[in-house]
Amino acid sequence: MPTMTSARGFASSTEDTAYLKALADHLPAVFDFRPDLVLYQAGVDPLAQDKLGRFALTFAGLMARDDLVLRACRDREIPVALVLGGGYSDPIAHSVLAAANSYRVATALFGW
Question: pTM value?
Answer without folding.
Answer: 0.90
